[in-house]
Amino acid sequence: MRIRQQSQFEYGYNSITEVDGKHSDMLMDFGVLRLDADQEIVNRDSKERAFVLVTGEVEFEWENSKVVAKRASCFDEGPWCLHVPADVSVRISNFKRGTELSVHKTANDKWFAARLFTPKDCRIEQRGTDTMKEMGTRIARTIFDKSNRENSNFVLGEGVGFPGRWLSYPPHHHPQPEIYFYKFNIENGFGYSEVGEDVFKVRNNDTVLFPPGMTHPQVTAPGYAMYYVWVIRHLDNLPYISPTFLPEYTWVMNKDALIWPDK
User: Fold this and answer.
1) Residue 53: what are its φ and ψ, rounded to 5°?
2) Residue 111 burial by CB count (10 A; 0-12/13-18/19+): exposed, middle or buried?
3) What is the fold, at CATH topology level, of the domain defined by 2-253?
4) 126 CB-side CA count, 13 A
5) What are the backbone dihedrals phi and psi of residue 248, each rounded to the nearest 5 degrees, phi first?
6) Domain residues of the chain, as ranges?
7) Mean pLDDT confidence for 174-194
8) Distance between CA 33 and CA 98 in Å, rounded?
């Protein structure tokens, strides 16, 4: 399902999915926090939370820590993300008008230490190189998963697609729900997102929801880079570890694959 954002987000928290409300099948609250100059918010919640700085400059304050984070471009720079367990109070002070953060919340009774992930803490890879005539080459940024946040109920990261190329390809699926939130460079750009057998045109600030078991490859139009922050919700006794690729398409991952018009 695509959720089209027709206009700029309002200042404050813009709710998109809710555990106990709209799109509850995603099992998580997701929204975009847009801040005006000198605006400040304080958040304390009984849920696990992750705050990803998409663009702008903020000061994160939690427990006995206080750190300023800056991000001029989500296309060119790695992410900052504050990740806290239930009941930890978070203060976010903004220094730049139009700062945006993606906000992710879900139920989780497990304790883990609050942590601010910097761009240096994230696993950043260029995937797809030397395969598919570079048509699947993209940047993958993993902020955290089971390997470094065992007690979290999330896997959280970002993808950046080069103009005219594919992401999340070959088609794959998993039994856990997932959310993508998009930005484009340039902002009037567009791409296409598959949700099973349905395909949606996606634009800047759109959100797409992927129910369990749905394939979800993406492609971005020539001339326009695609960015998205993605989050997967672990299921009880079934955490997300890796996707299942549709076997009829995996041959394209072979570096020796002959792709037309190769002889």
Assistant:
1) -75, 110
2) exposed
3) Jelly Rolls (2.60.120)
4) 8
5) -70, -10
6) 2-253
7) 98
8) 10
